[in-house]
Amino acid sequence: MQTMRIRQTAIAIGAAAALSGCATVQTPTPGDPLEGFNRTMYKFNDTVDTYALKPVAKGYQRVVPQPVRDSVTNFFSNIGDVYIAANNLVELRITDGVSDIMRVVINTVFGVGGLFDVASQANLPKHTADFGVTLGRYGVPSGPYLVLPLLGPSTVRDGAGLAVDYVGNPLTYVKPDSLSWGIYGLNLVNARANLLGAGDVLEAAAIDKYSFVRNAYLQRRQMLISNARGEAGVSDSSSEALPKYDLPDEGSAGAAAGAAAPVAASATAAVPAAGAGSAPAAAAAPASASAPVPASSAQAAPAEGASSPNPASATSVPPMQVVPPAPSGLPHFPSFPSFKIH
Predict the structure, then answer these.
(1) Which residues contact 176 (CB under 8 A, 6 or more apart)?
(2) Which of 226, 230, 235, 222 is nearest to 93 (CA)?
(3) Which of 75, 84, 109, 200 has the highest CB neighbour count under 10 A?
(4) CA distances from 35 to 39, 43, 216, 292 (A)
């Protein structure tokens, strides 16, 4: 069965590569050498989301009551905390790792198997971690920005980390395989339903959605890695932990001017919370719905003495092109994915 899964994944990636074979960009954005391929994959993912995943998520939202959806979100989030704890311990963030273990124990015992988030009510913070962040914490370069078929925004480093995320996800070992994939499917649909509001805001805010999602993803990853290195000024579990625009290279500090709307934090946090840290679950946060939406953007100056920018860092990517979004905000729900379980 494992061989069949690998074969199916290889076929999907091969088909995606064939679709992008003739995709070229006359003047690729500096720092995004794979822009032709990435834009083709973004369009492919957006089409699949528009005509398949989004309609299913809307039907699921209409049929399933909100309390039940919240319990499903909490269940997968609790499973994700197991893997988040492991990554935090590997990153030597011992306090966060122990806190995550306590969350799992409390929510499993007192939250009826994780259906209720008792730990958050006990003021135990929710963290975000995956193997891509762990690699970045120890200095592994991100490589170029990469949009994966069905899985959405990534980088070469984060894409490689997805394999470890999949192996480390407890749902991978559920038997029989049909039950495992059924649980993955429920996680994916529930996560997409949670992100319906984020997708609507993105549609209203971005002129070039590809650039918007790319910049938002890179900035969020930079923030998480800086936090893992102890360089961030705020905890990634805070609702005020907003991505910064035009960040310097990974490991360098930058001063940001201006403020972003809280909706950005809720949308970004949502992406990590539903995915349970695995490749199939990652699709729960499609490219069209995974980006935070700031009310205003500001540029930051790189720190003095900063080295040349990483090809995938936000420094070499132009600011997002946005127009003020509609005043409607995003519904706040428990951090789900982290798809990469948050």
Answers:
(1) none
(2) 230
(3) 84
(4) 6, 12, 16, 21
Q: What is the torsion angle, in degrees rounded to the nearest 10, for the CA atoms of residue 225, residue 227, residue 233 and residue 234?
A: 120
141: left (phi over 0), alpha (psi -120 to 50) or beta: beta
Cα–Cα distance, 91 to 97 (Å, whole number): 9
Tokens of residue 137, six digits:
């914490």
Per-residue pLDDT of the chain (342 residues; tens, 9 = 90+): 444 454 455 445 555 444 444 455 556 688 899 999 999 999 999 999 999 999 999 999 999 999 999 999 999 999 999 999 999 999 999 999 999 999 999 999 999 999 999 999 999 999 999 999 999 999 999 999 999 999 999 999 999 999 999 998 888 889 898 998 999 999 999 999 999 988 777 777 768 899 999 999 999 999 999 999 988 554 444 433 333 333 434 444 333 333 333 334 334 434 333 344 444 444 434 444 444 434 433 333 444 444 444 444 433 444 333 333 333 333 333 333 334 444
CB count in 10 Å sphere of residue 213? 27
How far is residue 306's CA from residue 284's CA, in Å, rounded to a whole number? 36
- Is the entire prediction scored with pTM above 0.70? no
Residue with tokens 């070469």: 156
Cα gap 320→275, rounded to integer Å: 26
Separation CA 165–CA 131 (nearest Å): 6
For residues 9 and 7, what is the distance between their CA atoms, to the nearest angstrom? 5
> Which of 277, 45, 80 has the alpha carbon at shortest distance from 161?
277
Longest CA–CA separation in the chain, Å: 57
What is the residue type of 65? Answer: P
81 CB burial (10 A radius; 0-12, 13-18, 19+): buried
CA distance 153 to 145: 8
